[in-house]
Amino acid sequence: MVLLNGVGGIGKTTLALKYIHSTKYKKAYTNIAWISVDISLKEDFVSQLSEVLAINISKIANIDQQINHIIKLLRQQEGDNLLVIDNANSAKDIDHMEDKLNDLPWNVLLTSRENPSNVNPSNVNHLRVQELSAENSKLLFIKWYKHYHPAQEEALNNLLLFINHHTLLSELLAKVGNESDISIPNLLEKLKTNSLEDKDLQEEIKIGLHAKMTDGERNTSIEYYINNLFEPEKLPENTWQFLRLFSLLPNQNIAFKDIEPLFKEIDDLKAKIKLLQKKSWISKTVETTATENRISYRMHSLVQSIIFKRLETEKHTQNYLWHLDSLLKQHLTIAHLFTPYAYSALEKLKQPSRALASMALTLSDRYYELGNYSLAQITIEKSLEIRKQLDDKELLAIVYNRLGNLFLALGKTNKALLYYNLMTEVQKNFTPPIHKVRH
Fold first, then answer.
1. What is the pLDDT of residues 228-286, one digit of tens each?
2. I want to staple 400 with a disulfide (CB 3.0 to 4.6 A). Which of 215, 323, 361, 422 is the partner?
3. DSSP labels, 150-206
4. Which CATH architecture has domain 236-316?
5. Whether the predicted pLDDT of 116 surpasses 80
């Protein structure tokens, strides 16, 4: 038994199809049967293979007896045979069929998002389907995007890097861009601004091999199709907050030593990480050095965007933001470790709140102390924007004061004076004085 494992849309179905249709391997099998799991492995095993075998199974009432009957018929097939079970994403389903599949004298190929450590059969050979290389991702995109010109190479590299060279997304974005005549830089800008929800990305396109082998090749929008590949709502509810918080992190490997203090509100953190890693919602990397094994975790940017929307991350972040704010207020030697995570949250969250405004201001202070004045300006202006949205006039004085200090440090005296004057105007209408105002 061979298991192809990887995140949704990474190319497992396509790889299995290429294998059974290749000249080299197709001739190796006398019979090839294909099951696409939609309802459950047992039910689809019975319904689809009974159709392939042209038998009426309805007279056998018990589903296990139906499976036994089908396996008996399959055993009668001579030669070297292959059974492909596509989209077997439930470890429980596979466990329930373990003995029956092991009893079948056929080669079995499974595609699944389940991590193999969560699948019981001891005779499983595991092949992890990785993201495409940068070059192959580019070739796939260019295949479907007919407007490409070599002068766009840098823009294309940036777009594909943003989606982590995800196989299906590379293809679908190319098709949408081609059909709607959207330039590559504009595709990237739309993704950064509105993710897959951008109205210009909703052109109906022909979905490829995966849909053809599951629910029939058809036209649909990229947002609809991608969202239906992932169902975080089916995960245990006690994992949802972990997923929400992880969707706010930068799309990179995050060291476990950073996750622990960041996710202080999450109970049984290690158990939740283990579960979600097994189910391929996050990936694990172990880097071995001379002194230690450095463990880190990462969530694909596509998965992050889907979780952010489906689990309504915006509505469940206040405690996390105040916690981040407190982490940033520690000594600079510790606080600077958390600046990338705070900046990522600030970029992704759109709904104004006092927690977000406060964290943005504290983050700006840290960047100022680190000498990164450009990021200090970006983050403090974000805090100013949020406070204006909240009509938080009293605390505006703090932000104006910080902006005055920043522009003074940059040598822009006139601009510094402008903000100091704005601070004074705001202070006239409020007591206590600025140094006693909490933010």
1. 777 888 889 999 999 999 999 998 899 999 999 999 999 999 999 988 887 878 888 88
2. 422
3. GGGHHHHHHHHHHTTT-HHHHHHHHHHHHHHT--HHHHHHHHHHHGGG-GGG---EE
4. Orthogonal Bundle (1.10)
5. no
